[in-house]
Amino acid sequence: MRSVVISVAIAIAGGFLGAALSQRIMHSPSQLEAMPLESDSGWITPAIKGYGNIPQDSRSGFQPSLTLSNKVVFKVSRGAARPALVNPALDQVARVVNTYVAAGVPVQQLKFVVAVNGEATSAMLDNAHFRQRFGVDNPNLVLISELKQQGIDVAVCDQALAWHHYKPQWIATSVTHALSALTTISTLQNKGYALLIM
Description:
CATH architecture of the largest domain: 3-Layer(aba) Sandwich
Number of helices: 7
Largest sheet: 5 strands, parallel
Oligomer: single chain
Strand content: 5-15%
CATH class of the largest domain: Alpha Beta
Helix content: 25-40%
Strand order of the largest sheet: 6-5-4-3-7
Distance between the termini: 53 Å
CATH superfamily of the largest domain: DsrEFH-like
Number of domains: 2
Shape: globular
């Protein structure tokens, strides 16, 4: 009987340990930061160079269409794991842009707006204020600039700026000021924009 109890206790402890290890492995920062490179076979960044790597397969279903409005508002609220990393939600926006362009929709036909608030607000800071606050250069500025060059409007919530005690003049010049992220989203949804929460 004693050996049965010991075996059960070992099995339970092993189960907990295995679950904890698998959780640690699944959420390891090194795995989350690892992105396929452009040089890897099949991965491309046709519109936002160096960001939002995608595999492209024209046989996949639900391809973007030239005949649709292609209006999307992205809600970006989560921050990066560390200040030195590009915001993963902004990288996902780049991935969506690259997916549409790779499917044959010209970037000029994309009506995309990025509504930023919450933990992502700091990614909108200019380099001087980002460095003053976090001790590193803002890794998001090149991506934001690339998005803007492709006609993607990245808008920061002025309510979030106030909440985080950021002054409006601290925000990068490539970022649009919006009354709030919530009114940006609701206004655009009323104009037929699809909402994607990143």
